[in-house]
Design a protein that fits this description.
heterodimer, A: mainly alpha, MetI-like fold, B: 274 residues, mainly alpha, globular, transport (chain B), MetI-like (chain B), transmembrane helix (chain B), MetI-like_sf (chain B)
Chain lengths: 262, 274
């Protein structure tokens, strides 16, 4: 197949992929440097900037907050998103067409606008804890991933299996957990992991919903970069890249990475 | 009871979106029309300020530049990827997905190291003897554009690989067996069939750039203020929530208008439905 492609185009593609991967290799190199300033190629190899992450209280705290928010928001999105995706596939004729649009609104409305609106009209207006707005904000932005991935899994599910179980006397909830859920298990795992990484990396919602006493890891990274130019941020970036690799491995085993190209 | 089963299952998600997204965002937009100065006072103030007009204009300019560059790079790359042999294609897709799943802060930070005053690019150029003094590359429009292209090219590649793979191989073979050169096949068969995908990609990149925050904040700073960074500054630094709401409303209107316009265009230009 490749023989039909102009060599210039192949060279261009090679350059594009160097452009894509190069900067991340530079971050990795900078993280391993033994210097107090950011540099590449690394001068002297050391892992001391990785130790520094956990020596800084703000990083320890925000890593925990980010993990907590990601875990909780993803769980919320799964608990409400799986039934929603099921309804959209199983009872499509009952439901109005705009409902599926409603579930993709969180990716259509600019995240900054959503974050600001949650701050202004939920947290401040009703004097409610900012943590709640942060949590629901994250649940909202990961909901479209959950609905989309679960819908894709359900598209290949044969609903007559479910009907067979029900007609043989299995109660609806039991059918859901013993027949439907095991059949879309890989979709659930993929949805979970994609939602999780989206939440961990989020800036635009969180930037408005953090403040003294409550911050997430990406926001702390931004704050650290404005004051210091040491390799700590590079080290945290490497930890996040390791997480990305783990996510990719899970997606590949469940949906296949080509799912992301659909 | 069964008639409402769908609603029962969809209601928690519907409720979350309505209560925590639709209502708060609508409230933000409504408050811009209910200020003491009259319904359009805040918009008159926004478009009356030369500085804010300049920010809006710059944001459109940067987003357009990023969209066009990402479209060209993304399409040519996706074309090669979609025709690559299986093993190579898998590697290339992995290489595109990896940056996509890596956060925006990490990816912008990489360009901070590269473009900084004592960054890799400057020190390389100096050691090669091409320049004597470091260039000011950070906090320029160019830096923001480069970093944003970096941000969005993977998305464009993956979107377009999906589109190109869905073009039936028969069409390509028919074209070449009827005597068209590869370049003619590309221009007259592949490209027109990819137009709807190109439009989807362009919408994703334009709206993503238009409403971005982290990249202009890190690489543009105060000098290259964009709508997202201006909105944050108004909301959290000067605490002018009316002005921030106005920017939010302008962002929502422009985003939705572009999505709607591009959707309509995609439908008209789709050779499969026309």
């Amino acid at each position: 197949m490749t023989r039909n492609i102009h060599p210039l185009l192949i060279a261009g593609t090679a350059l594009v992929f160097m452009f894509l991967v190069g900067p991340l290799i530079i971050v990795l190199g900078a993280a391993l440097s033994d210097t107090t300033y950011l540099t590449f190629p690394p001068q002297g190899l050391s892992l001391r900037w990785f130790e520094n992450i956990f020596a800084i209280d703000a990083f320890r705290r925000t890593i925990l907050t980010s993990l907590q928010i990601a875990l909780l928001s993803t769980t919320i999105a799964l608990i409400i998103g799986i039934p929603a995706a099921y309804a959209l596939n199983r009872h499509r004729i009952q439901l109005p067409g705009w409902l599926s649009t409603l579930f993709i609104l969180p990716v259509l409305v600019p995240e900054l606008v959503l974050g600001f609106s949650l701050l202004k009209n939920v947290a401040v207006q009703f004097n409610s804890p900012i943590y709640l707005s942060l949590l629901f904000g994250h649940a909202l932005i990961v909901l479209p991933y959950v609905v989309r991935v679960i819908s894709a899994s359900l598209a290949s599910f044969d609903f007559s299996i479910e009907e067979a179980a029900i007609s043989l006397g299995s109660p609806p909830l039991k059918t859901f957990f013993t027949v439907l859920l095991p059949n879309v298990r890989s979709g659930v795992i993929a949805a979970f992991i994609l939602a999780f990484i989206t939440s961990i990396n989020d800036v635009s919602i969180s930037i408005f919903l953090t403040g003294p006493g409550l911050s997430t890891l990406p926001i702390q990274l931004l704050a650290h970069m404005e004051q210091f130019f040491d390799p700590t941020v590079a080290s945290v970036s490497v930890l996040l890249m390791i997480l990305t690799v783990a996510v990719m491995a899970v997606v590949e085993r469940t949906l296949g990475l080509t799912f992301l190209a659909k | 009871m069964k008639r409402f089963a769908g609603w029962t299952q969809a209601s928690p998600a519907t409720l979350l979106v309505v209560v925590f997204l639709v209502l708060p965002v609508l409230a933000t937009i409504v408050t811009t029309f209910t200020t003491p100065g009259g319904p359009f006072a805040t918009y008159a103030a926004f478009f009356g300020s030369g500085f804010r007009r300049a920010v809006l204009f710059r944001t459109i300019q940067v987003s357009l530049a990023v969209t066009v560059i990402a479209l060209v790079i993304g399409f040519l790359t996706a074309y090669v990827v979609s025709r690559a042999p299986g093993w190579l294609k898998s590697i290339l897709i992995i290489a595109a997905v990896f940056p996509l799943l890596t956060g925006v802060v990490v990816r912008s930070f990489a360009w901070l190291i590269i473009l900084g005053k004592n960054g890799i690019l400057n020190s390389t150029l100096i050691s090669l003897g091409l320049i004597t003094e470091p260039f000011q590359m950070l906090y320029t429009q160019g830096a923001v554009i480069v970093a944003m292209v970096y941000l969005f090219v993977p998305l464009m590649i993956l979107t377009l690989v999906g589109v190109l793979e869905s073009i039936p191989d028969d069409l390509i073979q028919a074209s070449s067996s009827l005597g068209a050169k590869p370049s003619a096949t590309f221009m007259q068969v592949t490209l027109p069939l990819a137009v709807p995908g190109l439009i989807v990609g362009a919408v994703l990149v334009f709206t993503g750039s238009f409403t971005s925050y982290a990249t202009p904040q890190l690489l543009g700073g105060e000098q290259v203020m964009m709508m997202g960074t201006l909105m944050y500054q108004q909301a959290m630094v000067t605490f002018d929530w009316v002005a921030a709401s106005t920017i939010a409303a302008v962002m929502v209107v422009i985003t939705i208008a572009i999505v709607a316009a591009m959707n309509a265009m995609a439908r008209r230009l789709n050779p499969m439905t026309a």
